[in-house]
Amino acid sequence: MLHAKDIILVLLFVGSTVCLEVEITPTQGEISVGESKFFLCEIVGVAKEIDWYSPSGERIEPNKPEITVTRNDESSSTLTLYKAGVDSAGTYKCLATNGDQSAEATVNVKFYQRITFKNAPSPQEFNEGDNANIVCDVISSPPPTIIWKHKGAKIQMEKDVRFKILPNNHLQIRGIKKTDEGSYTCEGRLMARGEIDLKIIRVIVNVLPTIRVWQSEVNATAGVGQSAMLTCAADGYPEPMVTWARAGVLLESGEKYSFNEDGSEMTIMEVAKLDEGEYSCIAKNKAGESEQELSLRVFVKPKITFLLNQSTSEMEEQVTLTCEASGDPTPTINWSFGLRPFTEGEQAHLNRIYQASWTRPEQHKSLDGNVVVRSDARVSSLTLKYANFTDAGQYLCSARNAIGVDSQPAYLEVRYAPKIHGSVTVYTWEGNAANISCEVLAHPSDVSILWLRDGFQLPNANITKAKVFQSPTASYLEVTPESENDFGSYNCTAANEMGTESKEFLLIQADVPSAPSLGEVEPFSSSARVEFQEPDATGGVPVLQYRAEWKTVGRGSWVQRVFDVQGGALSEVTITGLKPETNYEVKMSAINGKGEGETSPAVVFKTEPVREPEPPKLEGTLQTKGNSLKVNWLKQDDGGSPITHYLVRYKPKYQADWKPEIRLPSGSEYVVLSGLEWNTEYNVFVVAENLQGKSQPGTLTIRTSPEPAAIPATQGCSSVTYTLISLVLSIVAVLLLS
C-alpha cells in the first residue's frame, strides 16, 4: 500500500521530467523613437530562474532607469523599454532555467523615426529686399517629403521664381517683400507609413526706415522765450526709434531739448541765434538706419521797446504818442485807433475812425491838420494838436517784420467837463413812479450831480414823492406824480473840476391807448388768425397787452383772452376753441401801464367746415452735443377734429431718398434728429393727421454745424461783461436804498 509520502515523490519526479517552453508577447516589436514599450515572457512548466538578455548578450539587471525587468510570478517576467532610442534596437532573449533544464525565446526590436521638427523656429525675421531662407529642419526614417504652403495653398515655385526649396528643404524667398509677410506651413509627409505633420512658421519682414519731412527749413524767433519744433515722420517695420543729432552729437532731453513720445518732434526751448543750423533726424530699427537733415533759421521778432501813456485836456494842449521798436529784419511801425489801422490818404479827425500807413521817413497830416504822424527808422510818433474827449482811449502801436508782430497799447487820457445823456421826455401818470435818467460822461469821473425843480434842489419838502439814486456814471430821479403840478420840467446839473453842464428833462402825463385797427381775419375750422395794427396813439407809454373778445353772432356771451406783447411788437393773434361752420364776431382793445383803451369795432367771420389739419409751424435748433437737430413745432388749427398723430420725414437736401418716417403721438411738440452729416443742408417735413386726413407738410430747411475743431477755453472776462456786472450792481444798490 502506497503512502502519501510516496505519492508526492512520484509527482515531483513526473513534473521534473516535463520540458520547459518559453513564449514572448508580442512576438516582434516595432517602436517609434522616444516611445515606451513592454514585452511579456511566459513560461510553460516550472522555471526557477527567468532572465532577459540584451542584443549584446549581456544579462539585463532589474530596475535600470531606461530598461527594466520585472518577475511577475513563477511563470512570467516583463521587459520594459522606456523612451527607447535607436541604440536599443536588436534581438532580446528571454531564458528560463530549472536545474539542468532551460528554454528560451527571442524578440527582434526595430525602431523607426517619426516625423520630427528639429529646428523650425517661429517667428523668423528678415529685412525687406534680402534673400530670406526660412528654416525648417525635419527628420524621419525614411527621410520625409517636404511641402511648403502659404495662405493655405501650396507654393507654386514655377509661377514665382523668387520662391525656391533648397536641398536642405529650407524655403528661400529672393528679394523678400513686406507683402510676403505672414504664416508659412512646413509640411512633412512619409508615404511608407501614411504619416503627415506640419509646423506653422510666422514670417516677419522688417522694413528699413524712411523719413518724411514736411518742412525742411524751420524759422524761429529768438530772444522772446519762445520754442521751435523740428518734425520728421519715420515709417518702417518694426516702428523705428527716432533720435536727433547736431554736428554728429546725439541730443538728449533736458532743459534745452525735449521730445515727444515717439521722438518725431523735437522742441528747442528758449531759442537763441546760436541754435541756428543743421539738425539730423535719425530713424533706426532692426532693418537698419536712415537719416534726414533739417535746417533751423533763427530771426529776431519785433519788440516794442518804448511806449508811454499820455494825458491832456480837451481842446487845450497838443499831445504826442511815441513808439520805438527793435527787430531783425527791421520792423515797420503802424498805429491804429478803434477798429482799423491808418491808411495813407484817409487821415480823418479821430471823432471818426483813423486810418494811416506810411513809409519811413515821412510825415502825414489829417485833412483838418489836427493829426500829424511821423516815422523814421525804428521810431514813429502820432501827434494830436487839439484833443477831443472822443479821442481818449487805447492807441495801438504795431511793429511788424517778415516773421512776426508785436503790439502794445498806449492810453491817451483826455480830461473834460461833464456831458449829459438820457431820454429828454418821460411819460407816466398820477400815482405811477417814473424814472428820469441823467447819464453823465466826464473825466475825471469824480462828478457831483444835482436835480433841480423850479430852482430848488430835489428832494425837498414841496415834492415829497421824489427820490434820487446815484451810480458811478448816472443819477436817477424817481418821481411819483400826485397832481398836474408834478408834471413838467426837471433839471439835472453835473460838475467836476473841468466844468459844469445842465440839461432839462420833461415829465409828461400819459394816457390810455386808442383802439387797435382790425384787419383781415383768416378763419379755420376751430380757430382764426386775427391781424391788426397797433393803436395810432399809445398814450406815451408802451402797449403791454391786447385783449381779444369773440362770440357767436347774435347769441351767447363774449369770450376773451389777453395776449402779452413780447419783443416790443404784436400784429396778429390766434383765437381758439371755435366750432366749425359757425358765424363769429371779434373785437380788440389795447392795454398800457395806465389802463385799457377803447374797444375796436367788431369784425364778423365764419369758420371753415371740418377738414384735415393746418400744417404745423416748424422751428429748428442745432444741439450743442453731437451733430443733432431739435425740431419744434407749433400746433395750428386741427381742422375741427382732434389730431391723432404726427409724421416726421427728413433727408439731406440734395439726396433723393428720405430717412425712415417717424410716427409720434398727438401730444408731441418736438423731435430730435441725431447722427446727421456735418455741414449739410437738410429738409424736414412734419405732417399732422386727424380723422379727415393729413395736413400739408410743415417744412424746414436748415444746415448742420461744421465739423468741430479743438476750441481753447475762454479765459477772463470781456470789458462788456464787466460793464454789465457794474450796471447790475448799481441797480441792486438803488433798490436797496429805496
Task: Characterise the protein shown here.
Strands 19, 22, 23, 26, 27, 29, 32, 33 and 34 form a 9-stranded mixed sheet that branches. Strands 28, 30, 31, 35, 36, 38, 41 and 42 form an 8-stranded mixed sheet that branches. Strands 10, 13, 14, 17, 18 and 21 form a 6-stranded mixed sheet that branches. The chain folds into 6 domains: 21-113, Immunoglobulin-like (Sandwich); 118-207, Immunoglobulins (Immunoglobulin-like), CATH 2.60.40.10; 212-300, Immunoglobulin-like, CATH 2.60.40.10; 422-509, Sandwich (Immunoglobulin-like); 517-606, Immunoglobulins (Immunoglobulin-like), CATH 2.60.40.10; 617-703, Immunoglobulin-like. The longest helix has 19 residues, at 719-737. With 738 residues, it is mostly beta strands. The chain is built from 2 helices and 60 strands.
Number of helices: 2
> What is the CATH topology descriptor of the largest domain?
Immunoglobulin-like
Give the overall pLDDT as a whole number.
Answer: 85
Determine and state the CATH class of the largest domain. Mainly Beta
Total domain count: 6
Q: C-alpha Rg, in Å?
A: 54 Å
Backbone structural class:
mainly beta
- The percentage helix is under 10%
Overall outline: elongated
CATH architectural group of the largest domain: Sandwich
Number of β-strand runs: 60
